[in-house]
Amino acid sequence: MARRVGICAVAQTGFSRDMWQERFQGMALSVVESLVEQTALSFTRHEPGDGIDMAISVSDDIFDARTISDNAMTDVLGAHMGCEEKVSQEGIQAVYYALAAVASGHHDIVLLVGHCKESQPSSRNMVTHMAFDPFYTRPVGMDFTAAAGLQAQAYCERTGLGDDHLARVVVRAREYAAKNPATPGLELVTEEQVLNSPMLADPIRELHAYPVSDGAVGMIIADEDHAVKICENPVWISGVGNCMDSFFLGDRDLADVSTLKKAVSRACRRAGIDYPASGTRMPFDIIELSDQYAYQLPMWAEGAGLCGDGMGPQWIESGGMDEARVNLSGGMLSGNPLILGGLTRVAEAVLQLQGKAGDDRQVDGAKRALAHGVMGPAGQFHSVVVLERD
Q1: Whole-structure pTM over 0.85, yes or no?
Q2: pLDDT tens, 74-115?
Q3: CB of 131 within 8 A of CB of 377?
Q4: Fold annotation for 5-119+212-230
Q5: Residue range 143-208+237-390 in CATH 3.40.605.10
């Protein structure tokens, strides 16, 4: 029987547009120091005892402008002579990695820290351009924004999603971002400002896209015996699931959300939840979706079972975003680096379940949450984590 695994503490630097004054090691160190302070843990390296015995970093060689980007992180993570592993894609995968390491009994307490400075490249589109194959799609200039534009066109055509809907999504995200201490300095906007912002990739406008962001986020993950010792209210990882669509955009129906549906179904099945199913009550008190672009919030809501197929626009119009308590953190539209989107969604869900989200956005009595991460062009790879508290 696999061991029960809990998240005991989370920490974030706060995400800004350009953290020029701080190297990425410094960003990560502030997160590590907060986590150690919260849990009173030490780094055991190879010695036995109740301390951190594994570290997982999340980073990207191209964003960091260096090969083997985790090489510079081992001292910060206290792992110079210990076990350190790296995840270099969607940060939520590091939660999967830590879950496997602890549930299997290989490790008891894992430190997980992700960092990214999107402000370092002259354009993050140059970074995501490298995700495409060098023979067919790079030569025509594809990047994640261009791919998202194609998907947004397909989704809008299928559902009737319009500029007014997208403006409402952005305005709401900014309002919640203003209540979140981890997303300082992001200005409130009006629907008119959103509607008049420059076009990036039709129909995606500048304010429809998540802002360039720098920052770090981390957490402590432990088995049940240790979790209850170092934390008063651990949040348990009860289910995980992921699913990947085809690599080439031409092989996919870009308006289809079946990949996310499969990821949600797998995570719920592992958590013992009969969802989504016809007539089933939505079982989550908090939902955090990785909305890199405004059109993705209603689209991912369909995939997460919050509304029926093709009903994303009506979901927005009827107040579905607030009714389902989606992205009370502000979501990715409030500003999180690409590779940390899902990891930050997990951290924000944990804060809600621990009652630490703050008076302006705390959901009283929240007991179960769904956190979502996405990576690849036009939502190619979806990952889901179900979180619960006792």
Answers
A1: yes
A2: 889 987 777 889 999 899 999 999 999 999 999 999 999 999
A3: yes
A4: Peroxisomal Thiolase; Chain A, domain 1 (3.40.47)
A5: no
